[in-house]
Amino acid sequence: MPDTITQYKGCLNAAKRKIGIAEFHYQQLKLQLAATEVQSENPPPIPIQAYFEGVVTSIIAAIDQVAQAANYGLSLHLKNGNLVEKGFAALITEIPGLQTWYSNNFGIDLRRIRTRMVHYSYKKMPLALVWTVESTDSKYTGSRDLGIYADKALKYGLELATNFPIIEQKLLEHCQKRLTD
Question: Which residue from 43, 95, 91 is spatially nearest to 70, judged by alpha carbons?
């Protein structure tokens, strides 16, 4: 059981660090966007793309790490293929307030963009005086402007982070209950 506690706490601590990494990338992205003029028909310069992708991938990594913490702490024995879906379903059973965050259409869009970044490619195109990220055919209808999208991604991650104390408490309670059973 102490290994289980160490494992889920390690995942939650890693998730907290990923949120911090996303904050760093977001601050750098804002600086780069402010200092760079949009060139028609050209993708954004590498620093802008790198910082944008840093925000997105860090937030998704934090989400994955929270799901893995649930996997360890709730003894779910999940495989990677359904870790996020089933890990968060189990957490939502313990913490119903997470349902609103988890069902946000932006989260689905964010994960799809991250998948395209990592495994395929995605369009980054100038539109008027900003660069935009392509649509993912999700129900998210908000801005595609790279700066606004990154801001929304960071806020989405920070909203999850506000739940870290209750998540940690519920996972500890579950582990303690297993010790007394």
Answer: 91
pLDDT score, position 124: 65
DSSP 19-70: HHHHHHHHHHHHHHHHH-PPPTT-PPPHHHHHHHHHHHHHHHHHHHHHHHHH
Structure tokens at 25: 């990338």
Question: For residue 84, what are its two tokens?
Answer: 């996020």
**What are the tens digits of pLDDT across the range 45-99?**
899 999 999 999 999 999 999 999 999 999 999 988 899 999 999 999 999 999 9
pLDDT single digits (tens) 119-148: 877 666 656 667 778 788 889 888 888 999
The CB density around residue 97, as the number of other CB atoms within 10 Å, is 11
Measure the CA–CA gap between 83 and 58, rounded to whole angstroms.
17
For tokens 């999940």, name the residue. 78
Please enumerate in sequence order all residues whose Cβ is within 8 A of that of 155, keeping only pairs 6 or more positions apart, or say none.
none
Secondary structure class of 107 (helix, strand, coil): helix
| Residue position matching structure tokens 């929270």 | 66
Count the neighbouring beta carbons within 10 Å of the beta carbon of residue 166. 14
